[in-house]
Write a structure and sequence with these properties.
CATH superfamily of the largest domain: Winged helix-like DNA-binding domain superfamily/Winged helix DNA-binding domain
Order of helices and strands: HHHHHHHHHH
Strand content: under 5%
Number of helices: 10
Number of strands: 0
CATH topology of the largest domain: Arc Repressor Mutant, subunit A
CATH architecture of the largest domain: Orthogonal Bundle
Shape: elongated
CATH class of the largest domain: Mainly Alpha
Largest sheet: none
Number of domains: 2
Structural class: mainly alpha
Helix content: 55-70%
Distance between the termini: 71 Å
Length: about 200
Amino acid sequence: MLFKRKTLFNEQDLPSVLDACKIGNHQAQRCLIRQFLGYAKSISVRYAASFEEAEEIVDDCFLKVFQNLEHYDAAQPFKAWFRRIVINTAIDYYRKNLKWQGQASLDDLEVADCSHDILNEISAQEILALVQRLPPAYRMVFTLFVIDGYSHKEIAGMLGIQEGTSKSNLRDARRKLQGMIKLNFPHLYQLYNWPNKGFNAN
């Protein structure tokens, strides 16, 4: 009787883990998840409105990774390929739920752009909590542009919107963030937002 030989891989050698994943080795797949779960969560949580949404994005992300691993070019860094899949999965999640997402108003805020000085005084966890409270369209553009470094042209193509819409969503996201900072961190807002500071609103 012939037994199927177990595929060997080295957990410390990513190419061997990927090769084993390609042929459906569940142990290798669990190994890959362990290695990249934290990284996937750190990206998805920036695009999600909650940690529960982020978990859904991560689950879908790994499913797509295993489904598309044959298309991965081993000559390119795996982490960059993986990162793009996480971001694309977050965008797909956003599009899928778009019909349920209302566009929140700006509550007639008349304030300057969000000051980097203020953001430097707020912890990463506090900034994340504020970003998660942005309306979905604002959060998506803000994260793609400010955090992940995509251009407005790239964002427009990724989200299927006009460049002008991307720019206006970014502007409104920053205004919304500053409104929340004013509400939640009034001492910082007063310290860094004197009328004569002349903040740039690009």
